[in-house]
Amino acid sequence: MRKIRIFEHISLDGVISPPGDDDFAQGGWKASYRTPAGAAALAEAQGMSFDLLLGRRTYDFWADSWPKVKGGPFADGLNAATKYVATHRPDSLRWGPVGDLGKDVMAGGRHIKSTDGPDLIVWGSSTLTSVLLDQGLVDEMVLAVYPVLLGQGKRFFSGSVDARELVLVSTKATSTGLLVNTYRHVGSLRTK
After folding, report:
1. What is the pLDDT of residue 34?
2. In which residue ranges of the chain is pLDDT below 70?
3. Which residue(s) pair with 8 in the sheet?
4. Do 52 and 109 form a contact (C-beta atoms < 8 A)?
5. Which strands form 51-55's sheet, in the order they lie side by side?
6. Which of 18, 44, 121, 192 is most exposed, with minimal Cβ within 10 Å?
7. pTM for the complete prediction?
8. Read out DSSP for 139-173?
9. CA separation, residue 15 to residues 10, 59, 60, 128 (Å)
């Protein structure tokens, strides 16, 4: 059985914004915190062999850029990974290797998780992330936490996610204050 691991860039107040997202006025908020150490920490957490679970919007955004990037462990890993996409238009998927999650996204996600293979990583794809969390399918979360408060924008955690308990597996800090925290899902929140 594979693990599902969520990777997300997030502000201290829970706001996320994919690079280049024109819907968010402060889309470049992560740039000044990027360092080689931060990139290395994310690449290490991601690993060399993985497949991707992606929402359609993230898939389309990445399909326009990552195939053009050649060389480097991050780009090579993304381009080589099988991309499983939540989509109603599977015939239009062009960046491969690729497959769709089917009409029932959760059934497709459960099926792929139950197979042998590398970990399944979710980058971005906040709608898919919320559904996976709601269904209890997430094993780990790797959060790149930036030392900023953005106040508004798309939030990582939906209001419908049930209370959960996580345990901190590892943390790495960069000189700019970026934290790369890995959390493992433990289960329902204990109150006593």
Report:
1. 85
2. 17-27, 158-160
3. 143
4. no
5. 98-100, 83-86, 51-55, 120-123, 4-11, 140-146, 179-188, 164-173
6. 192
7. 0.86
8. -EEEEEEES----SS-BSS-TTPPPEEEEEEEEEE
9. 6, 20, 21, 16
